[in-house]
Specification:
alpha+beta; Nuclear Transport Factor 2, Chain: A; five-stranded antiparallel beta sheet; about 30% strand; globular; disordered N terminus
Length: about 160
Amino acid sequence: MRMNVLWAAVAAVVLCTSAQAAPKIDDPVIFVRWVYAEMATDKNFAYPEDALSPRLKALEDLDKREAGGEVGRLDFDFFANAQDWSISDLSVTGAPVENAKDREVVTAQFKNGKRKNEIHFYFEKTAAGWKLDDARSVIGGSWTLSLILKYGWDTPE
C-alpha cells in the first residue's frame, strides 16, 4: 500500500509539472517511475512520444513510414519488454554518465509476469528538458531500441 502512495505522488509531481502530450522531463528517474506507475493502472498506456530525443523520434518515424500502416519493426512495448504487461518488483535507479552532466542512464529492474527484466534507458538533456535517446534490454531478452527501429530484429538463419 505504501508503494501505491509513492507512485501516486510521483505521478502527481510529473503531471503537475508537465503535460502528458508534451512532457518536460526534469528528472529521468522520476519520469521512468511515472511511466511504470501509469502502466500499472492503464493497460493501454503509451509513452508520450514528445519524451523522445530528436534522433530516437526520427528512427521511430522511419519505422512507421516504412511499415506503410502495418505493424513496424517495433512490435512490443519497450518499457514492458512485451506486448502485454503485469509489472511487479520494480526498482528504478539512475546514474550520470561519467564527465557528462547532460546524459544519464536509468536502470529499471522488474518482473513482467514471472519473467525478470532489466532495461537501461539512456537520457540526454536538451533545451526542452531531458529526452529519452535509447533503451537497451539486458535481462529478459537482449535488444537495443534504436537498432530495432532502424534494422529490425537480428535473426540469423
